[in-house]
Please model this.
Amino acid sequence: MISSLLPGLRDVRVPLAAGFMWLVVLWLIFYSAIPSEESATGLAAEVYRVLGVFGPAGLTAAVTFVAYLLGMLMVAILNPILNRLRTAANYMYSDATDSQIHRLAERTLRARNQAKMNVSNSRDLSLEFMSRDPAKPSTEDIEAAYEGMVKDVPLVATRLLAHHRELFDRYDRADAEAMFRYNIVIPILLIGILIPIRLGAPWWGYLISVPIAIGAVILLLRDATSKASESNEAIYQAVFVGETQFPTIDVIKETTEELRAEYKRREEARNLKERERTGRELQNQRVRTERAAVMGKEPQKRDAVPNDAPIAAPELEK
Model:
């Protein structure tokens, strides 16, 4: 039961932690405009009154709820930026597994190109491959396929959820750790900048606070990249052992199979035409042979009389 709740708890942790961090950022920006309980009037006074009724437990629940909503909002807003950041980090983190993924993309694309060359009767397509290995895919095609496979990782993880829960849990745990770190780096950097501003610190305060924040961000990004690579590793290993496959590779393989089926159909049609042509030629040859045999019978009869045979003298008319 606890194991079934863990994925949900991981999903809650990221927006909740990010929400608390963003609350600190907002408090550092607007705290001077927040009235104290004694000087509060209007809506602010009512808020203080309601919080006083519910006590510390109510205040904690309200702040947690607001932090969760704020975290979900900021995660949704920053998600495109964080995804680009994560993709860039994945490209920079190259290891043996990435080499295997590139080889998988190259093998799949090579098979597709070979099938395309077999099917096509166009001279233009043949000339396109004359300057290099005819079936070797271009670097751009390989990188595009690799990028597609990286983006396919969440979809492949969803496929594993039903039948390979252990692999999915391994992926989900590392992915949640990576997303947690990615989502707190921006508020940490802002907090490091806002603290000396609000404290009215001299220049050396900025030299202390800002570098510390930047160093923390760098360490978090490195750790997040490592966790992201660990989560991808779980998916890659599942692909390598044949438990699942990338949708990008599935699409390329489907195209390859369609091209092979088209090639087979064309070959069967070509062979059928060749057999029909051969049959017509054999039929024509038989007809010519029979016709020559018929035409050669009369000469053979005339030639049957020996040249030295005596010629009978004609009878004299009585």
